[in-house]
Give the backbone structure.
Amino acid sequence: MPSTKDKIYQSALELFASQGIQSTSTAQISKKAGVASGTLFVHFKSKQELIDTIYISIKKNAFSDLNEDMPDNSSIELQFKEASRKIIEYFLNNYNEFIFLGLVDIDPMVSEEARAIGFKNFEKSMTDMKIFFKEGYFRDMDFDLLMQINWSTIETIIKSLKLRNINKPSESELNLIWDIMKKSS
């Protein structure tokens, strides 16, 4: 049985994903969780703390250890495709979290402190990506722009798979992501 804090967290995530962060009140969250209004504030000091907690949790769960269990001698292509597959499958199984991240990207409700903590969860993966970029494995263009194009492609694949009720990316979808990233021959 989920704890009261977990009920509040899940209720907030569902409401944020379905009606937006700004449009969701703490009273609505409490009602959906089945707790008294003041109970939310026992577990989270404010709506902001709840938003930050959800954000940090998503970043930790979705982006930590993307290359865990990957043999050291794996090709860059294989490592990249495996990391992309893990991200896509995670968000297909946790679609409200995917929606939440999209909401905070267009309406930054997450504190700078939470963003910094969230970044730490995929700092190693990003460092690896920068090394691969410097070593010439990726397209020769602005690194941040390339990462944005990569994420936009992953987002599009997640949405497409969700609409078709498919829970895993195909090899051709992973190849597409790699083809966008890899240096042209």
About this structure: The chain has ten helices and no strands. The two ends are 54 Å apart (CA to CA). The chain has a mean pLDDT of 92.
